[in-house]
């Protein structure tokens, strides 16, 4: 590992014992520079905006702003930064939402820390990593081919044509994480109408919920 480029990392974890343990282990890794460890997303983002890092270790269940919202903020501020989710949650929707927001890895807190260090290195190099216990969710995020033509497997033109202009606007708001009430307010429509648009979008995209709709929209580049 001579001359290996050092990886700058922030830790965002509200549980003190875990935060200190991660800080201790990472500080000893010869290829990691820990820029800071924070218990809240708000405190972390204030520092991150001044000095972005290569990687962020992010908990989901944080006080105040949660890890999903923080991940979205990270990727908007610094698209090249890799986010590694470290959580005790195995909920499929949270896995999908994390990846939709731009996370590069989803790890469970039961993992041995040396393994997490290896994942940081791989994610920094561009890898996508899912904990084996939730890896099956990859089937849900993989877009189905729109064509059997090898040059146009994932063309989004067909999906776009299925959606009205208003539904496309609603879909963009879904990707932003807006609720039906928030969509209604932004678009100056009733909550009932917003709910109807969302239902129509789910049906046309052949997905079960708004999280899957957001993932499919991003993965097939309907929404960029």
Keywords:
single chain, 224 residues, alpha/beta, Rossmann fold, Arc Repressor Mutant, subunit A, 2 domains
Describe the structure.
The protein is of the alpha/beta class. It has 2 domains: 7-141, Response regulator (Rossmann fold); 157-219, Winged helix-like DNA-binding domain superfamily/Winged helix DNA-binding domain (Arc Repressor Mutant, subunit A, Orthogonal Bundle), CATH 1.10.10.10. The chain has 11 helices and 6 strands. It has a 6-stranded parallel β-sheet, sandwiched between helices. Helix 3 (67-77) links the parallel strand 3 and strand 4 (82-87). The longest helix has 15 residues, at 191-205. It is elongated, with a radius of gyration of 19 Å. The mean pLDDT is 85.
- Work out the helicity level: 40-55%
The termini sit apart by 37 Å
Q: Do you know the CATH architecture of the largest domain?
A: 3-Layer(aba) Sandwich
- Overall morphology: elongated
- The CATH superfamily of the largest domain bears the name Response regulator
Taking pLDDT < 50 over at least 5 consecutive residues as the criterion, the unreliable ranges are none
Query: Helix segment count?
Result: 11
Q: Describe the biggest sheet?
A: 6 strands, parallel
Looking across the biggest beta sheet, what order are the strands in?
A: 2-1-3-4-5-6
Indicate the CATH topology of the largest domain: Rossmann fold
Please give the radius of gyration in angstroms: 19 Å
Proportion of residues in β-strands: 5-15%
Structural class: alpha/beta
Structural domains: how many: 2
Extended strand count: 6
Order of helices and strands: EHEHEHEHEHEHHHHHH
Name the average pLDDT.
Answer: 85
User: What would CATH call the class of the largest domain?
Assistant: Alpha Beta
